[in-house]
């Protein structure tokens, strides 16, 4: 199976699927074999609040010793919760020829349950059907032999609220944001290279002047004098390297939910003010920064992180 369409394709993922060969990015739709679904009526307003309690809702349904990720969205007047193990999914995708960097978005079959009032053939032995509003894997032996299975064009489905592979792997930065930050770091790296070349050129000029001075004044051609001049510029190179590393670590704290508000570069430190969307994100960013030995000061949903040079 070779998926090479210009538009992003969608692949329905199930355990009996054939291997695929990809030349472009795809969205994947997980069947119930790869997630556990719950639908709850909760007196809360926001999705991030629902996600905070997701783990406790699944206590009786999944093995809590396994690392699960959670996705939640509002469905009519209820909240739809999904628990899934991204490492299991990643391993399965690779076994079918789908590399993680090819995956744009992850969706769930439950998200098009209205299209499955009649069963959709999934493999030789199973069909996908909505049973009491919940998308279910149904053995074909339980269905009528002369049943005409429904065909669903997944590329035309209006699916919302997909998650990225990067976010599911507990990364602060999604693949798209990683590319953007990578581009920014490349620009910063280029500026440091230009500055480094300028400093190198300056050192070369000083070395040339030193050679001329030594030629005119041989008594100054001793190692102590040369060492003194070289030591004058060595700290500059060390400082620039430290700045580059500090910028790299700070960039890892940024995402769509934790944005850079202010950046200050001083002689001895680099500090950044990061605005976060909620307390949970603020806590994550703070813990990550402290793990990297950064000084963290919190003011509401704003964090000031500082790296000593």
Task: Walk me through this protein's architecture.
The protein has 309 residues and is an alpha+beta fold. Helices cover 35% and strands 26% of the residues. The chain is built from seven helices and 15 strands. The protein has helices at residues 47-52, 54-57, 86-95, 165-168, 175-216, 223-251, 279-291, and strands at 2-3, 9-13, 21-22, 26-30, 36-40, 69-75, 78-84, 103-108, 120-121, 126-131, 134-139, 258-265, 269-276, 295-299, 302-308. The protein has a four-stranded antiparallel sheet with strand order 12-13-15-14, covered by helices on one side. The chain has a three-stranded parallel sheet with strand order 2-4-8, with no helix packed on it. A hairpin with a 2-residue loop joins strand 14 and strand 15. Helix 5 packs antiparallel against helix 6. The chain is elongated and about 105 Å long. 21% of the residues are buried. The model is unreliable at 1-8 and 170-176 (pLDDT under 50).
Write the layout of secondary structure elements.
Blueprint: E1 2-3, E2 9-13, E3 21-22, E4 26-30, E5 36-40, H1 47-52, H2 54-57, E6 69-75, E7 78-84, H3 86-95, E8 103-108, E9 120-121, E10 126-131, E11 134-139, H4 165-168, H5 175-216, H6 223-251, E12 258-265, E13 269-276, H7 279-291, E14 295-299, E15 302-308
Parallel strand pairs: 1-3, 2-4, 4-8
Antiparallel strand pairs: 5-7, 6-7, 9-10, 10-11, 12-13, 13-15, 14-15
Main sheet: which strands, in order across?
12-13-15-14
Shape: elongated
Low-confidence parts, pLDDT < 50 over ≥5 residues?
A: 1-8, 170-176
* Helical run tally: 7
Q: Order of helices and strands, N to C?
A: EEEEEHHEEHEEEEHHHEEHEE
- Report the strand count: 15
Percent helix, as a range, is 25-40%
Largest sheet data: 4 strands, antiparallel
Structural class: alpha+beta
Distance between the first and last residues' Cα: 53 Å
> What is the residue-averaged pLDDT?
81
Note the beta-strand portion.
Answer: 25-35%
Rg, nearest Å = 28 Å
